């Protein structure tokens, strides 16, 4: 079974079962980790902001203009920032590591 690793805002790493075809945001939310995801995955907010481990960035789909525009509204954006709703999980991402960004 595939998994992703989610580091919460306290620095605790969680191993989470990942479902093929779900977004990383859906996977994190289903694991009851503290991700707001206010828009439900429509790329209309930045409340599912995560930091992606550097070695995984090249394996992700390119960031869309909409995602980039929404990240302009996020707090503490870094070079490895992504919206987790815009990262579809696929088996090639087994072991992906993301860190939940600060809420504000």
Helix/strand/pairing category = alpha+beta
Look at the structure and give the CATH class: Alpha Beta
Q: Number of DSSP helices?
A: 2
Q: Which topology does CATH recognise?
A: Ubiquitin-like (UB roll)
Through-space gap between termini: 34 Å
CATH homologous superfamily identity: Beta-grasp domain
Determine Rg (CA atoms, Å): 12 Å
Number of strands: 5
User: How many separate structural domains?
Assistant: 1
**Beta fraction:** 15-25%
CATH architecture: Roll
What attributes characterize this protein structure?
5 strands, Ubiquitin-like (UB roll), 104 residues, 20% strand, five-stranded mixed β-sheet
How would you describe what is shown here?
- By secondary structure, the protein is α+β, with helices and mostly antiparallel strands.
- The protein has helices at residues 24-30, 65-71, and strands spanning 3-7, 13-17, 49-52, 81-83, 97-100.
- It has a five-stranded mixed beta sheet.
- β1 and β2 (13-17) form a beta hairpin.
- It is globular and about 35 Å long.
Briefly summarize what is shown.
The chain has 104 residues and is of the alpha+beta class. Helix content is 13%, strand content 20%.
């Amino acid at each position: 079974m595939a998994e992703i690793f989610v580091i919460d805002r306290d620095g605790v790493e969680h191993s989470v079962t990942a479902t093929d075809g779900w977004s990383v945001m859906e996977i994190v939310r289903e694991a009851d980790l503290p991700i707001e995801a206010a828009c439900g995955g429509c790329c209309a907010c930045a409340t599912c902001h995560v930091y992606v481990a550097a070695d995984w960035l090249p394996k992700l789909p390119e960031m869309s203009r909409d995602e980039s525009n929404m990240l302009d509204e996020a707090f503490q954006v870094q070079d490895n920032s992504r919206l987790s709703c815009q990262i579809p999980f696929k088996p090639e991402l087994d072991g992906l590591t993301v860190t939940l960004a600060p809420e504000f």
